[in-house]
Amino acid sequence: MNNEQLIINNAVDKAVLADYITMLSDNSMILGHRLSELCGHGPSLETDIALTNISLDLFGQVRMYLQYAAQLKDEETTEDTLAFLRYPNQYRNVLLVEQPNTDFAYIIARQFFFDAYHALLLEELKQSTDETIRAIATKSLKEVSYHQRFSSEWLKRLGDGTDISHEKMQAAVDHLYPYISELCEASPLELEMQATGIGANLAQLKAAYFERVNSVLEEATLTIPENKWTQSGGKKGIHTEHLGYILADFQYMQRVYPGMEW
Amino acid sequence: MKKQWPIWEVFIRSKNGLEHRHVGSLHAADATMAMENARDVYTRRSEGVSIWVVESKHIVASNPSESGELFEPAKDKVYRHPTFYNLPDELKHM
Asked: Was domain B7-80 assigned CATH 3.30.390.10?
């Protein structure tokens, strides 16, 4: 998508809209980075390529969001300054996506939990009153539908596979489940955007999300964790220790060689 | 080696109207995964509009030691090639 083609929304405060769009991109950016760490390390050639494909899809979406956000901001702001020159507390991604690639079961659980949310979110954003967000959501949904298919098929195979794969998959699900409720907890910014008709209605999305997640977990013969304890903070910029390490890697080139291009 | 997933052969149709062509193989635990792997490994540069996968063990292959009796007899039958006709330039895919 070229910058010229972007239709700027004049109906709302541009700074607030830019913040919302940046927030949308942060989940895809951090998860995309986590998946990129697996390039050349996938458990098999086929899964390695699949996970890096997903990473590239996510970064493609990030670029569309950030090009739009940069246009809404001042002259100095570009997609690169938004991606690479913010501090950890300025990233608004959920804690789920920054969790490490502990093993393949964790990678699949994290992916599945996010994909199920991502697809529902994009369905909502396809109805956004903002024309550019609508266009990005429509294009991204095709990619994310595939991501969801990939991660849920793997979740079922590992959950309903051998004793060892079941045990590992259950451990990953138990570990990551407390992080997923944050996806559907609307922050003040999200509520404001929902009120304008631009943003998604997360409260409405929540029931469909848990229905989807729980039904796939059941199909995978996995136990839905009973622990009601949840973990959140990412939407407020309060992150787990992992994000700092991610950004140290992610921002390295722009921090060491400011303004570098290739 | 027994723990390795079975091998699948992948066939891609590059556009509607053309035939599926063999493009390579991959490992996958079952048919659904084979299809997804084929999509990820072989169509990421827009190579196709349709995919077939078939587990390699289902392919019946000719035996190299029988190549003589299978293929040699055709070699001196030049009259079986349609090279004696003049084809119009507009005719494609012949």
From this structure: no
